[in-house]
Amino acid sequence: MTAASSRPDGGRRSGRRLIALAVVLALSAHGADRARAAWDRWIDATDLPDLSVPVGTEVLARDGTLLRAFPVGDGLWRLAPPQQGVDARFLAMLVGWEDRRFHDHDGVDCRAVLRAAWQAVAYGRIVSGASTLSMQTARLLERGRAGDWRAKLRQARVALALERRLGKDRILDLYLRLAPYGGNTEGVRAASLMWFGKEPRRLTPAEAALLVALPQSPETRRPDLPQARAAAQVARDRVIDRALSLGIIDAEAAETARATPLPRHRRSFPAHAALLTDRLRRENPGATRIETTIDPRLQITAERLAARAVAGQADPVSAAILLADHGSGEILAQVGAAQFADSASGGFVDMTRALRSPGSTLKPFVYALGFDEGLIHPETLIEDRPAAFGRWQPQNFDNRFRGTVTIRQALAESLNLPVVRVAEALGPARVMAAFRRAGMEIRVRGDTPGLAVVLGGAGVSLADLVQGYATLARGGQSLRLHDRPGVAQPGVRAFGPVASWQAANVMAGIPPPGGQAAGRVAFKTGTSYGHRDALAVGFDGRFVAGVWMGRPDGTPVPGAFGGDYAAPVLFDLFDALGPRMVPLPPPPQAALTVPNAALPRPLRRFLPPGELSVPGPAVRVADRLTIQFPPDRAEVELTGPTLTVRARGGTPPYSWLLDGAPVAVGIPDPSAELPAPSGFSSLSVVDAAGNSARVEFQALGGG
Fold first, then answer.
1. What values do phi and psi take at 399, rounded to 5?
2. Listing from the earlier edge strand, what are the strands of the sheet with 522-527?
């Protein structure tokens, strides 16, 4: 209302102007042909405001719910209406309150203009408005004033042009984006999230009525301001009364709506998976909708677990969690920092992607490669005794040695000397290649990796660690984990199914924290040098997860062990899956599940290649064990159900392993007939002295 219209004479002048405007509009719209043509040219020549209404980026969970919203460039919270639509009752209330003939007029409601004009003349003041939703949309697009008659004329012209060029649905969509709701909030979707913490797809009558009433005077009706609550209540209840009179709601619903308390506080917009959503927005500039594979329930659970894990710590620490479905490769929850807004604990650093020491979490991959190569079996005996590897003399974490142990015990107790012995026999280059095939990018200083890599002397991200454990969970076949919808393409085979199952079977026997029963989850913990990183990574028959705890700046956390810090969080996460958990798979048919005494003799005790179990003459280079046929990386055409293989050198008898499974044991001759494989296969031979050789080949035809 302008200053002139607040006085009787000013109201009458405004009324006369409105009458004149209504007459002009009516005559022009419905007059003679020449007048009508001139009218059409006038509307068609209207210079429309910019119709591109920027909306903030929204990142969505897998079910379409909002993970996080971002404001537009000018700081406004403005979002596109939901794709599933806005509550139909809200739309009916809006049209019934603001513009009952919205679907019948051409942008200007001449009847409403005449009514408002006669009322202004009769009462000497503006009693009711005549702005249609189309005119209000025109005003919102131009950021114009509502009461000035010249502005009204401009809004009428723009509204008429909008009706012709856009249609009702597009105009309503623009209004739902631009309607003001107080402060820096525009649009019904942002308002619904701010006042009710919900999407406007389904609103109660009380909620819908408040959202209809607020845009008329958003600052003086804000229910979060004590001085405005009474006005908000009156305005909302008037909308409820109108909805009742129009039959939009019944008397019972109206009574319940009037008794519903107003919201007292503005809510924060959703900000789940904060660091992930930040990254996705940077990677997709200009996108307004970014879909993800994140499960909203599991994401909220993971965020609560991370926050609880760091609560009460004497010094600021952070935590990161990643959970994925290793069958599909979809990432279901990702927490980059326990407290996103806490700069003291490095909340701005995404610790799922930062390079950190993996501690002992790489050991299962070394043993899996050893199983594949035919060097070891879970029941193979190995020495946990002091040893030097060049000038490096590794120690166990507790500075104790156990003597002769099985590979199973060595991995379960995370002993250092045995895994270094196996890695030395395999060679650091082959170990690093296995890491890469499993999907892990391992960073080391210099160009040549050393044996210290297997004890955590390298950099790897939590995301890559989970990726590697997903490969073991999938029987050795890698699959790239992803956070955007789409079918992941399988990668290369990193390990054989038997070797992968053997590594998982050992890890499944590790006692979980808190006295829980073993066997549900195959997992491994890790603690980096100086207690800088505490890790736990594991999987069941469907899910794979990893937890990191520490300080992003790399300073030590005294007393932080993976088993004490990270493992409880990992198992709480698996517990939260409830009935969705899937048991670990049974052993493959080719797996050799026997005690040490029943193993082929070369597998009973680990001996590095070239080291004899009993004194004897040195093996000449010419007598070194090799596989003569098939050649490494060859394509072999099969003509029958068997494959003839041939070794050279070494000490008989020989034992042959196909894809990690023994298929011929104690063969006195260097040649043997093996069952014909199909596709890509690995072939290993072990002689009586424990020497081994390995090739990979592709079998064609046969069966």
1. 60, 25
2. 330-335, 318-325, 543-550, 533-539, 522-527
Active-site residue identified among 5, 14, 58, 98: 98
What value does the mean pLDDT take over residues 510-517? 91
Integer Cα distance of 474 and 497 in angstroms:
8
Nearest partner of 507 among 359, 368, 607, 332, judged by Cα: 368
Other C-beta atoms within 10 Å of 517: how many? 7
Q: What gap in Å lies between CA 418 and CA 142, rounded to an integer? A: 75
pLDDT at 593 over 80: yes
The mean pLDDT of the chain is 88
Given a cut of 90, is residue 377 above it in pLDDT? yes
Q: For the chain, which residues make up each domain, given as ranges? A: 4-259, 607-701
The listed CATH number (1.10.10.10, 1.20.810.10, 1.10.3810.10, 3.40.50.1820) that belongs to domain 4-259:
1.10.3810.10
Instruction: Give the integer Cα–Cα distance in Å for 209 and 243.
Output: 8
Confidence check: pLDDT of 102 > 60 = yes
Query: Side chain identity at 50, as an amino acid letter?
Result: D
Quickly tell me which residue has 């050198």 as its tokens: 649
Of 367, 362, 306, nearest in space to 334 by CA: 306
Give the model's confidence band at 616: pLDDT under 50 very low, under 70 low, under 90 confident, else very high. very low
Q: Length of the chain in residues, anyone?
A: 703
Q: Are 525 and 567 in contact (CB under 8 A)?
A: yes
Reply yes or no on whether 357 is catalytic: no
Residue 98 a catalytic site member: yes
Mean pLDDT computed over 431-444: 95
Tokens of 180: 């003001």
The H-assigned helical ranges of 99-196 are: 110-123, 133-142, 149-165, 168-178, 188-196
Query: Using 50, 70 and 90 to split pLDDT, how confident is the model at 6?
Result: very low
Residue-wise pLDDT for 24-41, tens only, equals 555 555 556 777 788 788
Q: What is the identity of the amino acid at 292? A: T
Place of tokens 């011929």: 664
Rounded CA-CA distance 373/587 in Å is 18
What pLDDT is recorded for position 2?
39
Q: pLDDT higher for 528 or 623?
A: 528
Maximal CA-CA distance, the chain: 123
Residue 123 one-letter amino acid: Y
524 sits in which H/E element: strand 522-527
Instruction: Assess contact for 338 and 304: CB atoms under 8 A.
Output: no
Query: What's the first-to-final CA gap in the chain, in angstroms?
Result: 90
> Which CATH superfamily groups domain 607-701?
Immunoglobulins (2.60.40.10)
Q: Could you give the CA distance from residue 655 to residue 373 in angstroms, rounded to a whole number?
A: 12
- Active-site hit among 360, 500, 681, 684: 360
Are residues 563 and 525 in contact, defined by beta-carbon separation less than 8 angstroms?
A: yes
